[in-house]
Design brief:
The complex is a heterotetramer, with one copy of chain A (about 325 residues), one copy of chain B (about 525 residues) and two copies of chain C (about 350 residues). In chain A, α2 (about 70-80) runs parallel beside α3. In chain A, about 40% of the residues lie in helices and about 20% in strands. The longest helix of chain A is centred in the middle third of the chain and has 16 residues, at about 130-145. Chain A has ten helices and twelve strands. In chain A, strands 2-1-3-4-5-11 form a six-stranded parallel β-sheet, with helices on both faces. Chain A is elongated and about 65 Å long. Chain A is an alpha/beta fold. Chain B has helices at about 45-55, 75-80, 100-105, 120-130, 145-160, 175-190, 205-210, 235-240, 305-310, 335-340, 350-355, 360-365, 380-395, 410-425, 440-455, 470-475, 495-505, and strands spanning about 5-15, 20-30, 35-40, 60-65, 70, 85, 165-170, 195-200, 215-220, 220-225, 260-270, 280-290, 290-295, 320-325, 330, 345, 430-435, 460-465, 475-480, 485-490. In chain B, the strands form four sheets. In chain B, strands 6-7-8-3-9-10 form a six-stranded mixed β-sheet, sandwiched between helices. Chain B has a six-stranded mixed β-sheet with strand order 16-17-18-13-19-20, with helices on both faces. In chain B, strands 2-1-4-5 form a four-stranded antiparallel β-sheet, with helices on one face. With about 525 residues, chain B is an alpha/beta fold. Chain C has helices at about 15-25, 30-40, 55-80, 85-105, 110-135, 140-155, 175-180, 190-210, 210-220, 225-230, 235-260, 270-280, 290-310, 315-335, and strands spanning about 45, 50, 160-165, 185, 190, 260. The chains are: A alpha/beta (about 325), B alpha/beta (about 525), C mainly alpha (about 350). Chains in contact: A-C, A-D, B-C, B-D, C-D. The interface of B and C includes residues 76, 141 and 144 of B. Bound molecules: adenosine-5'-triphosphate (2 copies) and magnesium ion (2 copies). One adenosine-5'-triphosphate binds near residues 144, 147, 304 and 308 of chain B. Chain B: GO terms for molecular function: ATP binding; ATP hydrolysis activity. Chain B: It comes from Kribbella caucasensis. Chain B: It is a peripheral membrane protein. Chain B: Its main location: membrane.
Chain lengths: ~325, ~525, ~350, ~350
């Protein structure tokens, strides 16, 4: 990064200068880490939908395709275009810190979604808490699903991804309350449905008794379900996922249709980001530096209702 | 000459390649049942003219008439449909396919279920091959055949087309005398059946044997047309080259020096057997400084393999016997090692193993010697240019500019480039494998003159050739190989082609003198 | 690229006799070695070797069936001296296509499948035209094709996976489609495996008996010779790329039915797996030599390897290392085959 | 694969004269076209063309510097008729290596950089040996190399990105390293751009003047002929793969410093971008012809294209389509270069 300009003494980036009130027209740049992940595609969609409600806003989207360097370039291009506000969902924290700071120092308000950047050179962070989600999932298994103990296999996300580590760590904390629960195997499904399926094929083979499959996201849980179904063992075990995307191929539908037992929402924050942008640009107020959205348990009881709630127009 | 029943008539044919005019205003005709020889130096435009006739080259000026009907071919298939088949100079075969598949490529025989009738193809291929006098398993992949065998396959393929016009572009360049004889039998049969044949060759003695008429091209133009039985070789050559060429062959120079190379009972058992390879199985010979020693033998006698072993590129495996260079035993480990010891090698298949066809003449000429023209790993541009210009002059290379792609040169001139590359390494011993294959008679004379000159300076030469006149004319001594062994050695001062052939074919073989008056 | 070090070798499909048989045997040599290793290293339960249980073997083959189907098409393309990097993306496009047509557009089973296969066919044919008629190297044409197919799939699906539920309703796919994902022959053989087997056998037979296959080998072995012999080179190339696209689309359908969804991100990186299967199977990237039988062996080798690593729960990073080394070893084994 | 349809063309580095000049001109032709298009389609603000602002141009070149450095090495490999799919993974390995050595192992700037470069060199050389000495096709060797390098990077970094902070502390990297990411010449030229320029110029000069380059072209043009002419083919191949690995490692260092971290997932897919740059630059995948100048033009073309699409905020899916089409168009343009 560029280290020459360390002048973040102007508080304008807090929104003061950027704010032109309700008469202004605002171009918002949204830098997405990777739309190939359904969760992030949904985040873009949520932002698009929410921004459509704000006539002053025009949102542009860029996709870094999971490449830090590409995302740096995307943000730099936004700076060149002199956008009015940057929303970024960083691929990784550290590599994007410098360029986010650069935008912020230039007076562009920055909203960071889902994954934090380092330092405090941004206007606001909105995100979920993966450790907490993992803990909730663990507690749910420990208290509701296997109160008398049992065996769990864990399908992890891509090695090296932060949420993977956090969802793993949180879950361990969550089940710690019930020492009769044993994680008998873990495997890496790289967030992918087919990878989850292939790994589960082998896990089923190697483990005659599995009570719960905990997957770090819904697609892997679905893949595991398909693998179990193929050998007729899907009824023997419960499948728990994370993300609960309110889309047809998402986890909420899977719970509603009985494939998954439960899933936990990982909010996309899209709606909240536009709301925060509106506060900054149109209302000329300030926002909280950090806004953590809670997770929600989705089970058979509430799945249909929540799906409808998240997709108001159909 | 009876011009009455002209099967093919080409009028005012012109073709340019960039600045090169390969053909200009060429008139050419061919009658049914006629064997029409096409002669000319390398680059005279023979192949180009015939590629035009066979539909391979489609953008040209002039007119072609078949049976007095004007035709215009969009590709080789059209020409084949019109009854014109061509044996290409650069054996165009598919290495991975079997002999039979190659012969019937593009017009496979089918079963009633439209599938390939492999059995019938094999049978017919075998019959075709036998007709040209070859015993080859039609199921063998062409890639593992010798160059000579491949040439026979292309001949069989062309014959199988049952064409009315058969163009043979240097069909015998890799064949030895006995296979050539068989081919001539076939040609005579075809002629009797009314097929018109265009025969291109640089082997003058063949022309008189088979051709009814000959046309000479020079620089893309027709210079003369004549009855080959009525002209002497010297007159023909003069027509081709445009000036009188004196002695074809250098007189053997008896003044030889010390022993340069001694091979003692060399035998090699490759670790991995390759079908069709004939590795040395007990060869002894010597080459003295200033001596040109020939290697004679039939197709597959093991000449190429001997040269490869001496150059260090033979397959690995236990070997017996010794190789001594200037009295010291050596075990050539590879081309670099051999070159460092002063052994140079000109391989037999220049396109596959000699040249980078799309690189410049310059780059190809200096490839083996480039590091020596500069310092610190930097190329000395001026010196390498000078060296390659010098070599081009010395070999009388016919070319446009040094930057031109070597692949655009005519075959003989390509051969000179490979030759020149080795000379630039200043070898003590030169291993030549069919060095004049496809080289015109004028250029051959140059090469022979050069060999004589180099021998005079103390270079030793081991020359494998299938052309008996060349062996007899150029070499001081000829060693005959058969089945990987040396079976005889002759001094050319007191033996002729007949002796060589008899030795090559083995005992009891009846030898019939080839070559009539020319 | 021409790796010129490639030594000549008999080709299995056209050469006859002992050499060819030997070579065919060699092409499954690596597979045998890996298979034996898998048995040795397989975890056991109650004395039973888990790896060789019918269930597990069915899983292994099911898991490779998609790559296998793609690899058959890739074999053709590589035989003519080309390469097709777009197959993974075409798979994704086809998966999305089947899902969207059946679920969102409410088409029937047959029309959906036919249209999706046609899309693959046409996409492949277009790539074949670009490479054979304009003369752009196929690597670059299909690299572009990859991006284009991926882009189309994203646009068609709005970037999200399209879930496939079965039934007669408006947003449901016909039950007949689901059959493609089930098992047959007493629940032993998954239909995808059956499809793969049919494709592979058809390809092997086709290469042995058809005249077209001679043309295909000729185009890859010596294009000029092929042209001079009257082989319709351009047509052969277009046909081969079209078939490769068609098979990629077929794999996409199989993919969608197995995962109950079509996602634009399906099949990322499959092209490399398919190429690995082909090359491990002994087909030369220089074109002109190789066989579908070898490719099937190569695909199974990769499948067995993946399975045994997963059964033993090897750390995913170590898996990467082992897979890399086994691929090199398998390719090195290929070099031992008898050369001409 | 040999795309045999490749027409012969003069080669730039060894031939001289008009044809060569023309060819060199042709290889930047596509770049010029895209550049002009970029100016035309650039958004403007206050009458200023955003695309041509010094800042933006610096960004464009900085963004391509890593791919550019890799593509230079890739050019060498492709010139000898090989391919290197491992470069992206080696970049990741090198990025992880620099971060781990400097931050976790507390090494100094120079030793870290030297060791990381050596790792790239040795990794490349090993791949060169596998392809030249065992004779496995480079596609497969480096496909395996990709997995191995990626696996090693994951293991070395425990699967996590290693953040780079600067300072004298135990868990901090030396400030001297940070300089590699800064700008020079009045804050205008980013150092990565400078490194890329130096590498490119050195490579161009090297290919024009060195005797080694003759050997390199000859190996790619006709390996058998080169061997028989006394060219040390094996050594040339090993050297070329080693240099390619070295440059990939250099790109990895540049990557790490620019992103302030080394992550094992860095550089995924970069190999395809690099190959695209090489081929758009007019180098034939069949080996033996091409130039580094063309590659630089190709890399810049891709960079300008990416930039102008982003500046216009083209939808990322449409971007995929456009990029695919432009790559094909650029390659088709190459076909127009003067043939023999
Ligand atoms: N494809 C080509 N591109 C450029 N020039 C060519 C090409 N083919 C032939 N030429 C040139 O055309 C001329 C005639 O070549 P041609 O091959 O017809 O000669 P030839 O008489 O057959 O010679 P040879 O006896 O050596 O075979 C030569 O100067 C040659 O360099
Ligand atoms: N089965 C084979 N596999 C690999 N290389 C072969 C095979 N057969 C022949 N060769 C090589 O092919 C070349 C051509 O053989 P060639 O046609 O020259 O035989 P020849 O010259 O007619 O006979 P001679 O052995 O007398 O030289 C030689 O380099 C030889 O080593
Ligand atoms: Mg000729
Ligand atoms: Mg020979």
């Amino acid at each position: 990064g560029t280290t020459s300009e360390r002048t973040s003494d102007q508080p304008s980036a807090q929104g003061a200068k950027a704010c032109k009130g309700a008469d202004g027209k605002y171009v918002i740049g949204m830098s997405q880490a990777n739309v190939a992940e359904p969760y992030r595609q949904r985040m873009d969609d949520d932002i698009k939908a929410a921004a459509a409600e704000v006539p002053q806003f025009e949102v542009k989207f860029a996709d870094a395709a999971q490449d830090n360097a590409k995302q740096v370039a995307d943000v730099e291009n936004y700076i060149t275009q002199q956008i009015d506000l940057l929303i970024i969902s960083p691929n990784e924290a550290k590599p994007l810190t410098a360029v986010v700071k650069k935008a912020y120092d230039k007076g562009i308000p920055v909203l960071v979604l889902d994954r934090k950047v380092e330092g405090d050179a941004y206007t606001g962070f909105i995100g979920g808490d993966n450790v907490q989600i993992g803990t909730e999932a663990g507690k749910y298994v420990a208290e509701k699903v296997l109160p008398n103990g049992g065996t769990v296999v864990e399908l992890k996300g891509l090695a090296g991804a932060t949420p993977q580590a956090e969802r793993n760590q949180g879950f361990a904390t969550g089940i710690a309350a019930n020492p009769k629960i044993k994680i008998i195997a873990t495997a890496s499904g790289d967030w992918l449905r087919e990878k989850g399926q292939a790994q589960m094929d082998a896990l089923l083979k190697a483990n005659p008794k599995i009570d719960v499959v905990y997957a770090h996201n819904d697609p892997m849980a679905e893949g595991a379900y398909l693998a179990a179904k193929a050998v007729g063992r899907e009824k023997e075990m419960k499948f728990i996922g994370i993300d609960a995307l309110p889309i047809p191929s998402g986890g909420i539908k899977a719970v509603e249709q009985g494939r998954l037992t439960a899933t936990f929402t990982y909010p996309t924050n899209g709606k909240e980001a536009i709301a925060a942008a509106k506060k900054l640009l149109v209302d000329c107020t300030t926002i909280d530096k950090t806004q953590t959205l809670p997770t929600r348990l989705i089970d058979k009881a509430n799945a249909a209702a929540i799906y409808a709630e998240e997709n108001p127009t159909g | 000459m009876a011009e009455v029943a002209a099967l093919v008539r080409m009028a005012r044919i012109g073709k340019r390649y960039g600045g090169v005019r390969a053909c200009r205003e060429v008139d050419f005709s061919l009658g049914a049942g006629e064997v029409h020889a096409l002669l000319g130096e390398n680059g005279a435009g023979k192949s180009t003219l015939m590629k035009i006739l066979s539909g391979d080259v489609t953008d040209y000026d002039g007119e072609i008439r078949i049976n007095d009907e004007p035709v215009s071919f969009g590709g080789p298939t059209d020409a084949q449909a019109a009854g014109i088949a061509m044996i290409h100079q650069e054996l165009d075969l598919v290495p991975g396919l079997s002999v039979a598949d190659n012969i019937f490529l593009g017009r496979e025989l089918r079963t009633p279920w439209r599938t390939v009738d492999r059995r019938r193809m094999d049978r017919e291929a075998r019959a075709l091959l036998e007709r040209s006098g070859v015993r080859l398993d039609p199921r063998r992949p062409v890639g593992e055949l010798r160059v000579g065998e491949q040439q026979l396959v292309t001949i069989a393929k062309a014959i199988s087309l049952d064409a009315r016009v058969l163009i043979m572009d240097e069909p015998t360049s890799a064949l030895t005398t006995s296979e050539v004889e068989r081919l001539f039998v076939v040609i005579r049969e075809l002629r009797r059946a009314g097929v018109g044949i265009v025969y291109i060759s640089h082997r003058m003695e063949e022309i008189a044997q088979v051709a009814d008429r000959a046309t000479v091209l020079r620089n893309g133009e027709v210079v003369t047309s004549f009855d080959p039985r009525k002209l002497s070789t010297a007159e023909v050559v003069e027509a081709m080259v445009g000036r009188p060429v004196q002695t074809m062959f250098t007189t053997p120079d008896a003044a030889t020096g010390d022993e340069l190379l001694r091979v003692e009972d060399l035998a090699l058992t490759p670790r991995r057997h390759r079908p069709g390879r004939r590795d040395p199985a007990g060869i002894s010979l010597t080459v003295r400084a200033g001596e040109i020693v020939g290697l004679a033998g039939l197709l597959g006698a093991g000449r190429t393999e001997l040269l490869e072993t001496l150059y260090g590129v033979a397959p690995g495996g236990p070997r017996s016997g010794r190789i001594l260079l200037q009295g010291k035993e050596i075990r050539p480990r590879g081309p670099r090692d051999a070159l460092a010891r002063g052994i140079g090698f000109v391989p037999e298949d220049r396109r596959a193993s000699g040249l980078v066809l799309f690189h410049s003449i310059l780059a190809n000429t200096v490839l083996s010697s480039v590091p020596q023209y500069g310092r610190f790993g930097v190329v000395g541009r001026r010196r390498e240019r000078a060296a390659s210009v010098r070599m081009a002059d010395r070999l009388r290379l016919k070319f446009g500019r040094l930057q031109d792609e070597v692949g655009t040169l005519s075959g003989g001139n390509q051969q000179k480039v490979v030759f020149g590359r080795m000379l630039l390494t200043a070898p003590k011993l030169l291993l030549l494998d069919e060095p004049t294959r496809g080289v015109d008679i004028g250029a051959k004379a140059e090469i022979y003159r050069l060999l004589g000159e180099l021998a005079g300076q103390g270079l030793g030469v081991l020359l494998a050739s299938s052309e008996l006149p060349e062996l007899v004319g150029v070499c001081d001594r000829v060693v005959v190989l058969r089945d990987g062994r040396d079976v005889a050695s002759f001094s050319t001062a007191d033996s002729g082609e007949g002796d060589l052939l008899a030795a090559a074919m083995g005992e009891g073989a009846v030898f019939e003198q080839v070559g009539g008056p020319l | 690229m021409t790796d010129v070090q490639d030594k000549p070798a008999a080709i299995a499909e056209t050469g006859g006799g002992v050499v060819a048989t030997l070579f065919r045997f060699q092409s499954v040599f690596g597979l045998l070695a890996v298979f034996v290793a898998a048995i040795i290293f397989s975890p056991r339960r109650d004395g039973q070797i888990l790896f060789v249980s019918a269930d597990n073997l069915a899983n292994v083959v099911r898991a490779v069936s998609e790559i296998g189907i793609i690899a058959v098409g890739m074999t053709f393309v590589i035989l003519i001296g080309g390469i097709d990097l777009s197959v993974g993306a075409v798979l994704g496009l086809a998966a999305v296509g089947s899902a969207v047509l059946m679920v969102e557009s409410d088409w029937g089973f047959l029309p959906s499948v036919v249209v999706v296969l046609l899309i693959g066919l046409v996409f492949g044919a277009l790539q074949g035209m670009a490479t054979s008629m304009i003369g752009i190297q196929s690597f670059i044409v299909t690299l572009a094709g990859l991006q284009i197919a991926r882009g189309l799939a994203r646009i068609w699906s709005d970037g999200q996976g399209v879930a496939i539920a079965y039934g007669d309703g408006p947003d449901e796919a016909p039950e007949s489609f689901a059959i493609l994902g089930e098992r047959t022959f007493g629940g032993l053989v998954p239909i995808p495996v059956l499809i793969f087997a049919v494709v592979a056998i058809a390809a092997v037979v086709f290469l042995r008996v058809s005249a077209f296959s001679r043309h295909l080998y000729a185009v890859g072995g010596n294009e000029k010779a092929a042209r001079l012999s009257g082989v319709p080179v351009t047509r052969v190339k277009i046909a081969v790329f079209a078939v490769c696209g068609l098979l990629a689309a077929l794999a996409g359908i199989v993919h969608a039915v197995q995962l109950n969804q079509g996602s634009p991100n399906d099949g990322i990186g499959y092209e490399l797996d398919a190429i690995a299967a082909v090359v491990i199977g002994g087909t030369s990237l220089a074109g002109g030599r190789g066989s579908v039988a070898g490719t099937v062996a190569g695909a199974l080798l990769l499948g067995v390897l993946n399975n045994i690593l997963a059964l033993n729960n090897i750390d995913s990073n170590i898996q990467l290392l082992i897979k890399g080394l086994v691929i090199v070893a398998a390719a090195a084994l290929q070099r031992l085959r008898p050369t001409s």
